[in-house]
Amino acid sequence: MMDQFYTQIIKSLYFSGPQSIAEISNSIGKSVPIIAKSIQSLIDQNFVIPDGLRASTGGRRAAAYKLNKEKIGNTLTISINRYSIIMGLYNIFNEPLIENIDININQFDDLTIYHSIVVYAEKIIETYNTYPIFAIGITTPGFVDSHKGVNNSYSKESPLYDLPRRLKNDLKLDVYIENDSSAIAIAEKNFGKAKNTNHSLIINLTWGVGLGIIVDQQLFRGFNGFAGEFSHIPLADENKLCSCGKKGCLEVEASLESAIEYIKERLKEGEVSLLAPHVESKDKSQFLNSLIQAYKLGDQLSIHGIKKMGFMLGKGIATLIHILNPEKVIISGIGAAFGAILLPEIQSSIHIFCIPRLSQRTSIEISNLDNIQTIASACVAVMQSDNLIKNQ
């Protein structure tokens, strides 16, 4: 019982950083004497350490406390996307302990994907055994039920359907899972540009176009927990099939997948570009890395492909502004790397498609969080754990 209460305090210090006893009391809704006694117990157990004094508010300066990253375990992060898995190891301050490992996958080969996850996870656990791991956090696209620990986008026979249960059996660690866009929204709300914002929309711009909805500083999940399928709003003009099998989805014109398809089509037509040597590449993750580098070097075709995607994305965001009237819209995910070009295109599209009275007070911003996918996976492990003490 006390471990669960201590876990609440640890979560508060993780998501909000160093705090005074009064601030922790306000954060978790417990009295100051109870918090003071609990903090002392956590100090005695070495989970929490003093962090100087808070700024003066006119009276005596309050002592602040923070987590002890040397005592509290680390998180093995697994971030799954359409064409690759990114695995990492992070401490309780979201600081990377190793260089992220990027693993290419065939999205239709569930057994091989599962095998790759187990092999690389075991390798990380064995190689870096001086870094104790308290849990594994997974983010993945799809219809994820985080409470049941299943991804309903897969059949029940697939090892990726109940991935947490299987990994817990194989790796002997607690495992937690969340939809990637929802997890990124949680990370942006606590550590990024959505912090201290009541109503915000976080766009996860990747191979699709995910959406996390923050209402009254809480993640909005909808009736079945699947809110945010922004990719499949029927706004596209092109007569192309989406990955879901339908036509007209926003994803076919406003995703990184669509930008790469457009660029490759132009290259095959003879367009001059730094990306020409990669036109026949089947490795989409590698092509994306090449696209980011070409964009940074000012490659005109790369810039044009991103601008085209950005304008259509802005049209979709205009629709969201009409429906939800957010304070902020934050472009996050892999696509945030193109922020300097995306932002003016999105704003231009919003000017065209959105009623000014609604859009003029909504700010469009680009995420400033590095490694957002893996940080989001770490957030999942901390947020969903019901006991951050037992495995330490």
From TrEMBL:
Similarity field: Belongs to the ROK (NagC/XylR) family.
Top-level division of the source organism's lineage: Bacteria
This protein's name: ROK family protein
Lineage: Bacteria, Pseudomonadati, Bacteroidota, Sphingobacteriia, Sphingobacteriales
